[in-house]
């Protein structure tokens, strides 16, 4: 599979040249913070803040600010003096401005061409003062706004440090306790927003959270801005964060890795139960696995919250089912996990039509989850080219390839991803090259009405199930040691790809692909 190897090398090149490197400049967090920028008042600042920007789209997702207080201060006639003397508010002001202006067309996938990036750099110039001064709510809010901005594609290297500092500061301020000396509602709002951000990032990076769930005593305050109809997004995101904490501790921590397979599978079942209870607690219009109705996405906030809800759920499903495939020796359970992975990949790809291919979309939604779905579906097609629904699988591969081609086009080639269509082309060519089933075999797998049976067994890809791999199976590739094949070991969101590296420059994605493709 020389073509696949070439695609893997191209992915490696893209990650290194686009996401891990910046030409002609050092983009480390603290080097950016030292850049001297002149404080200026953007003539369109008020419109960026007020028009379909930060408070209309992002504030319902991350409700850690008092909108009235912030806007009153942002429109003061002596604003320039305030920005020059209040470092925390200066950092917060420019971070919010950077976030808001992205929704008004003032952003780009290329930092040098991005007005939002320049505003964010101005916010970062106050970072050293914020970190060195006494912890306060205003300092914490500035860090939180910067961390939110850092979730987009061209800030990928900055989010870990900013979230770590925000987590440290919120605990130092003791906002996780039930009693605080300041505005308790705003303090607790800020804590839960950081909790949501930090728990999700820690799970994705396979690292332990700095916020211990057993030490939290503060209530979740009333946040009408985060309520869409019957859906309270803040409460739902907090509940999901708790599930991530349980999943990491029982399945992906160091101590969990030493547990026997039976214990791991029992923990998987427990997390599945928690996840299903969380899913069922969500109103139908936003509930994962239910059809997402475009007419329900009445504004930017509702669409962003819907996509996060669905992709958060599918992210954990992918992690749980992949772990089940590695731990289970039960053929039926492995088949069910394989089918669940396949269905999840299909759902993820179907949702790509709702994704805004814009710089403000978090890379988790824009690329990581769709790329995981592409790999899962490609793997299934290569191993099961005679599956009854193979035409549908190939169509979905074309759709997700089109999503990445659109990303390539929207970024003017800054994020080279159109080459991923090669996976779709190769899958289609391979399926066409596989001999068709004899008529007798086809009849045995289909009912008399000619429709494919809904309960056709899917062969497990677990290496221990050697009996399923017939020597004359046309889906098996020559020269491949299936006994050592790590099934579905692609670079999915739960892959621990940061382990053992001191910097992102050392990352080599080729280590995360099964030997069948290398």
TrEMBL record:
<dbReference type="InterPro" id="IPR050987">
    <property type="entry name" value="AtrR-like"/>
</dbReference>
<feature type="region of interest" description="Disordered">
    <location>
        <begin position="434"/>
        <end position="457"/>
    </location>
</feature>
<dbReference type="Pfam" id="PF04082">
    <property type="entry name" value="Fungal_trans"/>
</dbReference>
<keyword id="KW-0539">Nucleus</keyword>
<protein>
    <recommendedName>
        <fullName>Xylanolytic transcriptional activator regulatory domain-containing protein</fullName>
    </recommendedName>
</protein>
<dbReference type="InterPro" id="IPR007219">
    <property type="entry name" value="XnlR_reg_dom"/>
</dbReference>
<feature type="transmembrane region" description="Helical">
    <location>
        <begin position="360"/>
        <end position="382"/>
    </location>
</feature>
<keyword id="KW-1133">Transmembrane helix</keyword>
<dbReference type="GO" id="GO:0003677">
    <property type="term" value="F:DNA binding"/>
</dbReference>
<dbReference type="GO" id="GO:0006351">
    <property type="term" value="P:DNA-templated transcription"/>
</dbReference>
<feature type="domain" description="Xylanolytic transcriptional activator regulatory">
    <location>
        <begin position="54"/>
        <end position="225"/>
    </location>
</feature>
<keyword id="KW-0812">Transmembrane</keyword>
<dbReference type="GO" id="GO:0008270">
    <property type="term" value="F:zinc ion binding"/>
</dbReference>
<keyword id="KW-0472">Membrane</keyword>
<dbReference type="GO" id="GO:0003700">
    <property type="term" value="F:DNA-binding transcription factor activity"/>
</dbReference>
